[in-house]
Amino acid sequence: MNAETQQRILDAVDAGFEAQLATTRDFVAIPSTRGAEGPCQDMIGDLLRARGYEVDDWHIKVDDLKDLRGFGPIEHDFSKARTVVGTYRPATEAGKSLILQGHCDVVPAGPLELWETPPFSPVIKDGKMFGRGACDMKSGTIGALYALDAIKAAGLRPTARIHFQSVIEEESTGVGALSTLQRGYRADACFIPEPTGGKMVRSQVGVIWFRLRVKGHPTHVAFAGSGSNAIMAAYHLVHALQKLEIEWNERAKADKHFKTLNHPINFNPGIIKGGDWASSVPAWCDVDCRIAVLPGWSVADHQKEIAACVAAASRNHRFLANNPPEIEWSGFLSEGYELTNAAEPEAAFGKAFNKVYGGMPEDLVFTALTDTRFYGLNHGIPSLCFGASGGEMHGFNEYVDLDSLKKSTKAMALFIAEWCGVEKA
């Protein structure tokens, strides 16, 4: 691809950027929390149909996925869960095929009064777009769509098959991405434009979600010593798991990528519910937890370690010794992933990056996870993850930096053209 062709694509991204931002605003405005992603999938389906893609829009069946590698248990109503894939088929087969994927699910916004602007009324100010999902990762998904648009606007068309995939459940199990593989979608490479701050994800953690279900013995608080407080017992178990976190971080010092980080394994008790009455010693407490594992670590073996840690801590507790808590695996059961066998797509992306940013992309050792793992681990499809800069993901006042979004869109467009090949339309 010569410099003139590259420049036509870059100019087309510039020309279409205001439209890209308008579409992104509309997408961010949809409150697509877990179980409510349908309107976002409707919007993506409409956008793909308007552009002439073949659209496959289906309801996900858990029974089709439950025996596949990386499946995480679903606890909520899944009857409306859908995946949408738009497929471009070339007139001339000459390049390499590609999956472009984004997730449309977002985490809850939390107390609305703690946002400076409403989370689902996106606002652009100071070169940033604010809103829940603006950064993670709705701007990236729409950016991928407009990267394809830019190639067309430049008078070109790709010469390889492209699947544009919009998935759900990235924030809790990953079964949306898994459903595309179960459906049979494959390509020579995958590209996921998560917000990585302009760096390439080299290695990422896996995640285990679990719930501690702790029992207590209720009594009137006036006689609290004769009962057993389930909430306080849960804290006892949390403290034990914090020690396990320390042990796992010691092991991480031997990992070739994560040894560069001070504390890559993060344990988080994220939800706590318990008790029925302020003047009653609580008889129950549930704590939903998240902990990371590194690439190459067995999820099953580390589940056993979690269970052993909880059992040992329970034996040292007056009430739990005879009333042990239950552990429920409540979402992610995900392996870590290291990008390997990706020299060809990385070289193609390196050319695109150099044209837009100059130099070569820095590596990112990622203490969160992405859907790239399914493609690499399950099917050996090299899966790149690169995107814009932003902040406050999963927090208040989430935002994406618009200059970085334009640059990442340009890099995507050039990568698609380089990897898939282009010809005059």
Automatic annotation (TrEMBL):
Keyword presence, Metal-binding: yes
Family from the record: Belongs to the peptidase M20A family.
Keywords for the protein's UniProt record, in alphabetical order: Cobalt, Hydrolase, Metal-binding, Zinc
Cofactors demanded by this protein: Co(2+); Zn(2+)
Taxonomy, superkingdom: Bacteria
Domain called Peptidase M20 dimerisation: residue spans: 204-316
Molecular-function GO terms, alphabetical: hydrolase activity; metal ion binding
PANTHER family, per the entry: ACETYLORNITHINE DEACETYLASE, PEPTIDASE M20 DIMERISATION DOMAIN-CONTAINING PROTEIN
Protein name as catalogued: Acetylornithine deacetylase
Lineage: Bacteria, Pseudomonadati, Pseudomonadota, Alphaproteobacteria, Hyphomicrobiales
